[in-house]
Amino acid sequence: MSGRGVWLRARARLRRFPAALAACGDQAAAYGRCVAAAAAGPAELRRDACLQEFQALRECFARAVRLCPG
């Protein structure tokens, strides 16, 4: 049994990633700002601190990947 098909599908998904990231720039920036703000200072980064921003980014990626040809 060959794993070649698995790698071809994985590469195809990775090729679509830049377009998905470009389509979700606002959400990615908001998530990054949230994580940076939550990690700044003496407080430690807590789980789900930026859950709302992460979910918005995740939904945007899902939409972008469905819309990207390939």
TrEMBL record:
Taxonomic placement: Eukaryota, Metazoa, Chordata, Craniata, Vertebrata
PANTHER family for the chain: NADH DEHYDROGENASE [UBIQUINONE] 1 ALPHA SUBCOMPLEX ASSEMBLY FACTOR 8 (PTHR34561)
Annotated organism of origin: Melospiza melodia
Any one GO biological process: mitochondrial respiratory chain complex I assembly
One CC-aspect GO term: mitochondrion
Gene behind the chain: Ndufaf8
Protein name listed in UniProt: NDUF8 factor
Superkingdom field: Eukaryota
